[in-house]
Amino acid sequence: MGKKKTLSFTFITMIIGLMLAVQFRSVQTPEVRDTRDTWQLREDLNEEMELKARLIKEIRANEQKLAEYETERKQGQEQALKNTLNELKEQAGLTDVTGPGVTIQISKLDDELLLDHVDYTLSPDLLRRLLNELNMYGAKNVSIGGQRVINTTVIREIAGETKINGRSLKNFPLEIRVITETFEDAQELYNRMLVSKAAEEFFIDNLKVNVLDPEMSVTVPAYEDSIRIRNIESVKADKGES
Amino acid sequence: MWLPVLGLVIGILLGLMSNFSIPDEYSNYLSIAVLAALDTLFGGIRAHLQNIYDEKVFVSGFFFNIILAASLAFLGVHLGVDLYLAAVFAFGVRLFQNIAVIRRILIAKNSTK
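Above: the input entities. Below: the structure tokens describing the complete assembly.
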């Protein structure tokens, strides 16, 4: 037998052997018998049930998380808008504000000091000056006689009466409430107001300015009317430009 | 002489140890391929004994028979006819014939000694 012939025979018998073995293995897959008794089966069942319960719990937790994320996503923008709106309202003075601050009382001068009967009128110029001073010294929110001072607040004399936001200021003592950023600011404002020139000038109008001690909690009421904006128009966003 | 037997043993061991098994639906093809391979092998032995052995015929016959048998079985599956039985029958008959020839030749050789 030639060498080549032997080699090819060997090769082919090897392949046949391989195929036989594989076929044998595939056909003769040993039958796996279940030899567990009732007790073992029960234990196995228990284990599987625990696993199932655990998996269900996990699924539930994940679903809940998913739902939370969903609602968060939905409410996120709405909440942001609401927050912005509230912030803007607060800035515009449409909400009651409570914070550290100072209360200033403007009252009539005692009658004994006066020579004869006089009108007690608060001049708008003086009030404006006082207001400017307050703003200069760090006032954040101010109300005069229960009227909130906002950006569009007008203090002026109409028919002999000083009016703020269209309401008369003739009931003395008049209370000016000032809210500052911090209590330290309130103290500083208090000190400055004690030596304020504007306060002194009220004396000319037969009025007395009394600055009360700074408090931790002073409440300034909200602006009562709705803010009317005239001559302003929102920009029409029609060209897709921002 | 003993090398082919050694090859067979090595092949079987390899197959058993490799932990390799084919899916159930393909075991038909493999069985028929085994049959074809065996047929070729015995045909080769007979040819060798009759001194008409041809290397090319033997090796090409081996692969060609396997492929033919497998494709016949495949066709049978798709036609809904058990065509692989035809292959089994053909190979079986040829296997018997080949073995019978080998037997006679061996007997004749023995008796002449």
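Note for the figure: Chain B has one domain: 24-112.
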